[in-house]
Write a structure and sequence with these properties.
203 residues, mainly alpha
Length: 203
C-alpha cells in the first residue's frame, strides 16, 4: 500500500512538471515494477525508505503548487511533509537541494529571486532547529563514522552514482544491496567515474 501511494504521488508530480500523462504514466509504471525497489518494499526494516520517499515527494509537490499558486495551505503542507520526511529518515533533508535545483533548471519563474529566497526560509529554519537538536543530543552534526570518512565518501560519490545507474538500467545481481567502495582512490573505476560525471555535468 505504501509503495502504491508513493507511485501515485510520483505520477501527480510528474504530470505537474511535464504535463504529458502518457509519458508520466509509463515512467511511474517503470518505477512501480522496477526490481531495484525490491528491498524497500519487501523488508519491513526498509519501510523508512518508502516513508521518506512519500513525504519527500509530497513536500516537493505541495511546494511547487504553493509557489505557483501562492497558496498558504499548500506551502504549509509542504513544510509539514518536509518535517515528516526528516523524521522518517535523514535523507529527507535532500528535499531542499531538490527544490534549489528545480529553480535553477526547470522553473519558469527564474527571474523572481526574492520570492524564491523567501520560500526557502521555513525549510532553512527547520534545518537549523533539526541540526541544533542533533548537535545537542549526539554532540555532532554528522554521525562520527560519517565524519571519519567524509572525504572518501565525497571522492567516491561519482562512483556510487554510476553504480546505482547501472543497477537501474541493468538490474541484475540484486541479491546483495551492500555497496562497497574501491580499495584505493587510484583504482580505475573511481577515476573513470569521476571523468564520466564531469563530462555529463558539462554536456
Amino acid at each position: 500500500i505504501l509503495h502504491l501511494l508513493s507511485c501515485l504521488l510520483l505520477f501527480k508530480i510528474l504530470v505537474f512538471l511535464v504535463n504529458d500523462r502518457q509519458a508520466c504514466f509509463l515512467a511511474t509504471v517503470i518505477f512501480a515494477l522496477h526490481p531495484v525497489n525490491t528491498e524497500s518494499i519487501s523488508l519491513i526494516v526498509s519501510r523508512n525508505n518508502i516513508l521518506v520517499t512519500i513525504f519527500s515527494i509530497a513536500s516537493f509537490y505541495f511546494y511547487l503548487k504553493g509557489f505557483r499558486n501562492d497558496s498558504y495551505i499548500d506551502k504549509s503542507l509542504a513544510i509539514l511533509f518536509f518535517v515528516a520526511a526528516i523524521l522518517s529518515k535523514e535523507f529527507g533533508l535532500m528535499v531542499l537541494p531538490v527544490i534549489f535545483l528545480y529553480h535553477r533548471l526547470l522553473s519558469k519563474e527564474k527571474g523572481n529571486v526574492s520570492k524564491e529566497l523567501i520560500s526557502y526560509l521555513p525549510f532553512l529554519l527547520i534545518l537549523i532547529f533539526y541540526f541544533t537538536v542533533r548537535k545537542g543530543v549526539t554532540d555532532s552534526l554528522l554521525t562520527p563514522s560519517d565524519m571519519e570518512h567524509i572525504w572518501s565518501r565525497i571522492y567516491f560519490s561519482p562512483y556510487l552514482i554510476l553504480l546505482n545507474l547501472k543497477l537501474i538500467f541493468f538490474p541484475y545481481e540484486l541479491h546483495s544491496f551492500a555497496l562497497s567502495y574501491p580499495p584505493t582512490i587510484f583504482t580505475w573505476p573511481a577515476i573513470i567515474s569521476i571523468v564520466l560525471c564531469l563530462l555529463i555535468g558539462t554536456a
